[in-house]
Amino acid sequence: MSKEFLARCREIIGAGFVLEGAGMAPYLTDWRGRFTGAALAVLRPAGTSQVALLVQACAEWRVPIVPQGGRTGLVLGSVPDASGTAVVLSLGRMNKIRSVDTINRTMTVDAGCLLQHIQEAAASEGSLFPLSLASEGSCTIGGNLATNAGGTGVLRYGNARELCLGLEVVNAQGETWSSLRGLRKDNTGYDLRDLFIGAEGTLGIITGAVLKLYPAPAAMLTAMVALESPHDALQLLHLMQDRCGSSLTGFELMADICLTLVATHFPTLPRPFAMAYPQYALVEISSPESESHATDLLEQAIEAALERGFCQDAVVATSFAQSRGLWQVREHISMAQAAAGKNIKHDVSLPISRIAEFIDSADDKLMRAFPGCQLVTFGHLGDGNLHYNVAPPEGVPHDEFLQHQDAVNRIVHDEVDAFGGSISAEHGIGALKRDELARYKSPVELDMMRAIKAALDPLGIMNPGKIL
Amino acid sequence: MSKEFLARCREIIGAGFVLEGAGMAPYLTDWRGRFTGAALAVLRPAGTSQVALLVQACAEWRVPIVPQGGRTGLVLGSVPDASGTAVVLSLGRMNKIRSVDTINRTMTVDAGCLLQHIQEAAASEGSLFPLSLASEGSCTIGGNLATNAGGTGVLRYGNARELCLGLEVVNAQGETWSSLRGLRKDNTGYDLRDLFIGAEGTLGIITGAVLKLYPAPAAMLTAMVALESPHDALQLLHLMQDRCGSSLTGFELMADICLTLVATHFPTLPRPFAMAYPQYALVEISSPESESHATDLLEQAIEAALERGFCQDAVVATSFAQSRGLWQVREHISMAQAAAGKNIKHDVSLPISRIAEFIDSADDKLMRAFPGCQLVTFGHLGDGNLHYNVAPPEGVPHDEFLQHQDAVNRIVHDEVDAFGGSISAEHGIGALKRDELARYKSPVELDMMRAIKAALDPLGIMNPGKIL
């Protein structure tokens, strides 16, 4: 039976693009190297009509499909399980920018386009595509949309969801649905676009998208601000939003230990301050007007915050290179942590007003349960999103500490739940957090999700075992 | 049977809030007075738990439910059909602002709150709730969300969808689902929020919402700009977005006939220009900084547009009263049209880049089919949304011309479809455009919508006959 199925796949996309055996290896292991699955084959279609035919074949032979983009996800959403019954459907060959409409400020792309190529194509037209992630050189826009990616631009421009005006999707029946019209208003029935966005490939396969472009800012300016506490960070955020409005395009929080880790493992990166402070905020201003406008906005806001005692010190970048350097400190936190050893990661969100209180309370509970554990907390404060990572106490072997992973997760996620937060702010659920989801979601919501899944994918072939 | 059902309803909400007979009249007729339906009863619950019990009773007795807010919709979405078998579930008593979180910049409200009360409550906290519609004094936020309302603030702040962080919904089983947590990032499963938003009450009843607040701008400034053509309006829009970024908070287009109608029927309103031009744009700048910043931005942009020949003349308001006056001209177009007699309305959207071409082409086709007909075109150009209204030729009685409604709709909507547009930009489908939807939507999309409807409302009791 599987022979007939594979023969049909070869017929559709050509034998060279149906990978079996060792050729599948790069497609079976997740980004962080924690899990390697198995597959019947890896399919590499060249376009949407081939995807549709492949899905029809999968439906006929009841073969589960794991859609895959750049495989940079952190929750095992795009790799198959160990059963070897599924096919991986890799969209990597579908990497064309279909068109750019500068007046409509939109770009229409294949799902397999690398995010960075999209950013560059936008820049070459004098525009900005503001989705920005650490993995932008490897991740694809289809994956970004399937997981509703976040990143550092959300404060001003929103999540991937808000940057998409329309989709092309092959549904679980192998039919193609397109809303690639580039409309900013369209109230004609249910919002299928937002249902497929964030569904992690469990309802259908995103094959194309219309993305929103923005005018490239005339100037961007960055500062690192030293703070006493997360509470002061909230005051600073509020003050800057009031004064700068949507010109405030970045607001990242990081605890002192983050800068220490970066300084230890990446000694060539800048050290913004001679002395240590408990917390830091990386703030970014973008101006459509001019460099001097950006400078005035940023300096005046920081001055006001210093006067009111919300911040202790600040370093304002005076060149693009300096701005870049400050961002690199922020972007190297995860890598510095990885260099220091394994740790237990959480990607949580909270109402912004409760973040400081959450950090105090969760820190306290963890410190009591695991005295001396190191709390490497950083994140997108302006979005209420913390990467709340827990490393072993000094001297405790990382592998030994990782045995407490479930207990640590329980403390952190119970605390998130108690504060009205989310256990997955921007990484999604995949296979990794499926049990956690079942624990924290209400039965009513899970039932509605299951009803939708059954309605749109009655055979259960779309990325089974993910989310639900 | 219906006696038992009504007895149960009285038990749940009290006899005084189960209206029958003549008491129902105000709830049965649509806003524009075109249709009066019939109902078994009008139910006026006091809170979400009562709504849940009422829906459970409706499910038990198989009674269709028509959820109703301020009844200001334009597509017969919130009034019952003529059968008299349904109940109207009016949310008017659920009108409390539940809480305001100034640090999280959110407000949690009952669905029955008037939009204007929400705007005022936000303003009293120094914040802005930017949803702004002609009917804001009468419409409710639940209706705004159920129809994904648009209005004049979409260019900068998005549709109602983008202004909502979470919902409370009673589903078709009478279960309550809440996502009222005020989170800006939450990737834990399917996006139910956006599925209920815009579903026009056909999947469940929105009973509460968390809304996004923005800092109130320090200054807002308005100008009316005279233009040669819609094509020039697009150039002006592009230039202003490049120069002003998100400080450009309004961009409305109107043809000369709109100003003539307003001047005729509302002679006390300002006449911005001594001579007539083919088109006008109303543009608005909001600055988080200062009055002088807003003035500089606006004047410099208009100067640049004059230099490049994109516009012919401009009137910049120098006071709040003058700004208000210019907006009133825009807001009185519909009323001036109504005073002039009935007309055939269309609420369409297009890719912004194709609007000028669409207007030329649709105007031409209509003029050939109905020589001398008057094309009263205006709308939210920045969102690609036109109110493309067709009035009879001079001297032709309005009622006579309205007999051509179907033929006119066909020409306009076929043209919209040919240009890749939408036949309902912001008004929704309701009962009025259901047949049009069936004509223009793809079978794949309609099938997916029907599958979702059947999955979430298997008894078909939620606002039947609307959308699908």
UniProtKB/TrEMBL annotation, chains A, B:
SUPFAM superfamilies from the UniProt entry: FAD-binding/transporter-associated domain-like (SSF56176), FAD-linked oxidases, C-terminal domain (SSF55103)
InterPro entries found in the cross-reference section: FAD-bd_oxidored_4_C (IPR004113), FAD-bd_PCMH (IPR016166), FAD-bd_PCMH-like_sf (IPR036318), FAD-bd_PCMH_sub1 (IPR016167), FAD-bd_PCMH_sub2 (IPR016169), FAD-linked_Oxase-like_C (IPR016164), FAD-oxidored/transferase_4 (IPR051264), Oxid_FAD_bind_N (IPR006094)
Cofactors demanded by this protein: FAD
GO molecular function: catalytic activity; FAD binding
Position of the signal peptide: none
Assigned protein family: Belongs to the FAD-binding oxidoreductase/transferase type 4 family.
Protein name: FAD-binding oxidoreductase
Species for this entry: Massilia cavernae
Taxonomic path: Bacteria, Pseudomonadati, Pseudomonadota, Betaproteobacteria, Burkholderiales
